[in-house]
Amino acid sequence: MLKLVFLSFLLLILTCNASVQDFCVADLMGPESPSGYTCKSPANVTATDFVFTGFRKAGNTTNIINAAVSPAFDAQFPGLNGLGVSIARLDLAPGGVIPMHTHPGASEVLLVVQGSIVTGFISSANQVYVKKLLKGDVMIFPQGLLHFQINGGGRTAVAFASFGSPNPGLQITDFALFGNKLSSALVEKTTFLDDAQVKKLKSVLGGSG
Predict the structure, then answer these.
(1) What is the residue range of 197's domain?
(2) What domain count does the chain have?
(3) Which compartments is it annotated to reside in (predicted)?
(4) Nearest-CA neighbor of 25 among 57, 2, 48?
(5) Gap between the Cα atoms of 42 and 24, Å rounded
(6) pLDDT < 70 stretches in the chain
(7) Phi/psi at 93 (nearest 5 deg)?
(8) 87 with 56: CB under 8 angstroms?
(9) 147 assigned to a ligand binding site
(10) Is 156 domain-assigned?
(11) How large is the angle between the packed helices 184-191 and 195-205, nearest 10 degrees?
(12) Do 157 and 75 lie in a common domain?
């Protein structure tokens, strides 16, 4: 009797394991929700879905911030959909900066692989944590907190940022304030900047109003 119970229990475990879904490769043609993309049919999944080659070349740093962020989130890397991880490459030319920003959906771990980067974050108590990172150094940025990266030397810096979400989200403070249609009067009231400063920043960052 005991042997029969054991065999039945073992069969139940094997049946349950057989039904476990190992992955959910994103169907980029389907809808996206806060929990991610719907799953591509397993019959259409290939090894290519689990490989990302977008980091082979440096990002284009010829822009207003002299920096580039190349993401490998679920929209670019379907195989990590639903797995709770993602990664991005940061290229910062001399003088380059990733402006103050937040990732509302995940914490971030930054690894410097070339050059040096001055980086830090601000806690919800307005405590500032800033450090200059050299090649091989790693820093953590807690979820949702404002943080930044600045090239710390005279050569191009490269780093990789990993996240605890397939889509960590991104909001850049400067663009949130000056890159939209929020009226200048409201921006001035909430930032204590004068009209000339607000209009100048809006003209640079593409805002209006």
Answers:
(1) 176-205
(2) 2
(3) Secreted, Extracellular space, Apoplast
(4) 48
(5) 8
(6) 1-20
(7) -70, 165
(8) no
(9) yes
(10) yes
(11) 120
(12) yes
Indicate which CATH number applies to the domain containing 79: 2.60.120.10
The predicted pLDDT at position 40 comes to 92
DSSP state of 176: H
Which amino acid is present at 203? S
Question: Is 151 annotated as belonging to a binding site?
Answer: no
Q: CB–CB of 103/169 below 8 Å?
A: yes
DSSP assignment string, 102-116: E-TT--EEEEEEES-
Residues 115, 70 within the same domain = yes
Q: 62-66: long-range contacts (C-beta < 8 A, 24 or more apart)?
A: 64/204, 65/96, 65/97, 65/98, 65/99, 66/92, 66/93, 66/94, 66/95, 66/96, 66/97, 66/151
Supply 87's token pair: 């990664």
Is the distance from CB of 160 to CB of 133 less than 8 angstroms? no
Q: Is residue 50 part of a domain?
A: no
Sign of CA dihedral 168, 172, 177, 180: negative
Establish if 70 belongs to a structural domain.
yes
Please tell me whether 101 is known to bind a ligand. yes
Specify the 3-state DSSP secondary structure of 16: helix
Q: Are residues 114 and 195 both part of a single domain?
A: no
Is 116 annotated for ligand binding? no
158-199 pLDDT, tens digit per residue, is 999 999 999 999 999 998 889 888 899 999 999 899 998 988
Three-state SS at 2: helix
Sign of the dihedral defined by the CA atoms of residues 155, 109, 21, 3, in that order? positive
Q: What is the pTM of this model?
A: 0.85
Radius of gyration over alpha carbons of the chain, in Å? 22
